[in-house]
Amino acid sequence: MQLTHKLSLELLSRLRRRCPVRVCVLEDSPGARILDRLLRPFGISFFSFAAFTWAGTIYLSRRLFNTAGGYKVLRHEAVHLLDQHRLGLPPFIIGYLLLLPVGLTIRAYFEWRGYRETLRAWWEDSPMKAHRRGERLVGQFTSRRYGFMWLPAGMVRRRVERELTRLEQTNGQPWQGLELLSPPRTGQHRHRRRRPR
Q: What pTM does this model have?
């Protein structure tokens, strides 16, 4: 399947200035099929995940190819891609997979970096939508689906709230080093600062 979504192609073009990257269909990956078989005994389907990133390749679910939602997922995965490139693949994988899921793990650190970009992508669409969806992230960090990688739900919720406040105060500015993940801005439009009811 060929990627044709304009914003996604522009994102990949900017990423390639920093490191090699390609996008493949998750369901066509032999490695993904192996991981799916390993996770099935725990009641988890690997193919229920939107994407994963490994050694310069982003494996994106077929249902998200060439969609606006897929573009947002690619931005999240691009953070993992850049972290893998910056740290080297072995340290990233060891930190992501092998540390025990107790309290704040290195895996949670990597995923939080990705989800900050997800929040920013949501915020660019609609600050109200970002606030509504922010609560969903708490479950991502505290459920068995992600290996209970960050147990205190209150800590995750506070992080989400602080990030949403930062986005409002900076009009959605990216974190340092991640500026290439969103297209250059034009004009001086600012979102109205509205909070959910």
A: 0.86
